[in-house]
From TrEMBL:
Protein name: Cysteine dioxygenase
Keyword Metal-binding included in the entry's annotation: yes
Cited Pfam families: PCO_ADO
Highest taxon above the source species: Eukaryota
GO molecular function, one term: metal ion binding
Species assigned in the record: Blepharisma stoltei
Amino acid sequence: MDRNNMQSLYYSCWRLATDSNALQALIAEVETNRSNTAISELERKFRSLTHLDVGFTPGNYYTPRCIVYTELIETPELSMGLFGMSTGCNFPIHDHPSMLAATFVLSGRLQYRNYDILSRERGGVINLSLCMEGEARGGELLFLTPKRGNLHQIQALENSVFLDVFIPSYNDIDRPCTYYQEIAPNKVASFVPQLPFKSLPYVGRPLY
Ligand SMILES: [Fe+2]
């Protein structure tokens, strides 16, 4: 059966979400910095995507001081979404509890900082250590895992759009998304940010 590029990516992600051996193999590659079969396969699928495949139109996704979001799919096992950020827009530090996240930059330039958790204190305070930082441009794929770089901050250095895959999905029970602000060097406290979000419907190719 011929699959379009979105279906091809979706089925690879779904396999990771439902086959714990496949997921652990990918996490092991990410955590040991050894890109092998699992990362390469996923990278190939992401890199084959065109703007038409994901239904991305620059004019719609770059709104000043606003994060534009399109949900592609959300199930307990997996979620996929498209994010647009205009130059200067900042996604504060936030976590992805017990999750793998893959971020593929479709276009633009992002600055990212990922942190590991060193210890937790009362009142939602966490001691962090910077695990990786850099700039990612169109065509680059970033990962974070339950243990490595699980908290991150993203800033758009240029108008940027990226596709996120979460395995499993956030939920309100045991995997909520918590935002943090720095209260001292390498120390953050949870807070509720004022994040202006705008939602757009998905107009890309069918996922399944
Ligand atoms: Fe994130």
